[in-house]
Amino acid sequence: MTTVYVPLDSVAVALDANAVAEQLSQAGATVIRNGSHGLAWLEPLIEVQHNDERIAYGPMTPETATGLIADGVLKHPLIDHPLCQGTIANHDFLQSQHRLVFDRIGQDSPLQIPDLADVHKALAMPPDALIQMIETSGLRGRGGAGFPAHIKWRTVRDTEAPRKYLVCNADEGDSGTFADRLLLEGDPFRLIEGMVIAGHATGSNHGVVYLRSEYPVAENIFKQALDIARENNLIGQNVLGSDFDFDLELFVGAGAYICGEETSLLESLEGRRGQIRIKPPVPAVSGLLSMPTLVHNVISFAAVPAIVRLGGETYRDLGIAPSSGTMSFQLAGNIKRGGLIEVPFGITLREMVEGYGQGTLSGRPFKTVQIGGPLGAYLSQQDLDARLTYESMTELGAGIGHGGLVVFDDTVDLAVQARYAFEFCELESCGKCTPCRIGSVRGKETMDQIISGRASSQEFNMINDLCEVMDRTSLCQMGGMTPIPVRSAMERFPEDFVQGTSA
After folding, report:
1. 297: helix, coil or strand?
2. What is the pLDDT of residues 18-29, one digit of tens each?
3. C-alpha span between 221 and 151 (Å, rounded)
4. pTM of the predicted model, to two decimals?
5. Could you tell me how many helices (H) and strands (E) the chain has, helices first?
6. Residue 280, preceding bond cis, omega within 30 degrees?
7. Is 155 helix (H, G, I), strand (E, B) or coil?
8. Which of 10, 142, 150, 388 has its CA 20 to 30 A from that of 179?
9. What is the distance between the alpha carbons of residues 362 and 256, in angstroms, rounded to a whole number?
10. Residue 327 three-state SS
11. Among residues 398, 392, 389, 350, which one has the least CA distance to residue 370?
12. pLDDT tens-digit map of 275-315
């Protein structure tokens, strides 16, 4: 009986992967639902096993699946079929990647317990040696700020307290980002392994994964993965035969973007409204239930097993120090080939947009790419040769954030996008501080005047003043980062802001 792999991730399911899987099953195939390889433009991308080779076909529909079955795809490879992608590992989109976090994704069912050698190795190491390895690796938070991970780990380890916690921020709300979802749907054990290792290193015996409510597929898979992890002693008492106890639970948020900020997330976990906490103290000293808490995002934790496997020096030598290791970039928007690209830091924006992405889907000229989510900077054609490192992006007034890249062609109006930044902040603000709560509303109103052609120099001065106040006095990065897309749009695309304005 022929085995066929059909992805169960959200994008594939939205494009009728379930119907395709049912057709193949009725035709006599053994169907395994796997994670996505990250080639979003080819979803649903199925793989048909013939002997030791898996031949990929995509993008599939129920109609094309019927045709493939009739043509005998379950009996022999259809190499000349227009939907045939060959062996997926040889696809040019994947061949040039360097996957350490996503190396297992798409290979099998996400609920297949993996080899746990990395965890065994980590549990045999003294906690201080593990933290030193993380420091040597140069790992920085992959959720946005790029803060050195070892500082958080050591702070939690060294802070005296009756209990310590790990919190994984899986509240992935930035536009154009989907790496967390792909991992949770396709390889949830990678996150569990990373959290177990981090728990051992920091002296934490309990972890919580705070999941975005809009990810029901990830929720279902991760719950099952937790049960399997307990059955295999990956979590629970005496993890993998060691003297370390560690338990893990899933918490589903209520859909607030502000809870992607770590202190708002902690407030939500404690049953309160998601609002910013004033720092200090930082969560590593006083976090969940006022206990020392290590807060990382999904990819930060998921990078840890590879560091244990390779060693800190080898991991550090990937990328361009101090931007070390690999980053999971996500390519979205008006792009011909969108998807996930895991590569060492240092690749250029041009290689992303024109190489991996193959340019705009519309075929029209490229105009801008927004990097780092809805509050990230808009970069222009002149910026495409910049390297994707924390340092290079900072020089451009941008940030890598969670690695999301959203591409636009020449039909986009950057004045409208600047207005959207203010509107987004207005809708998502927790309301605790005046610069964010009021500044976003005044910014949107002023942008309306500019867009309608009723603005004078006074309105442009107002935008500049609002941006300065929000940047300098907002309690958190929700208000503090809103000026980034506004300023970058005005600086790089001034022509979009002056048409029709009055003197």
Report:
1. strand
2. 999 999 999 999
3. 32
4. 0.95
5. 22, 16
6. yes
7. helix
8. 150
9. 32
10. strand
11. 398
12. 889 889 999 999 999 999 999 999 999 999 999 999 999 99
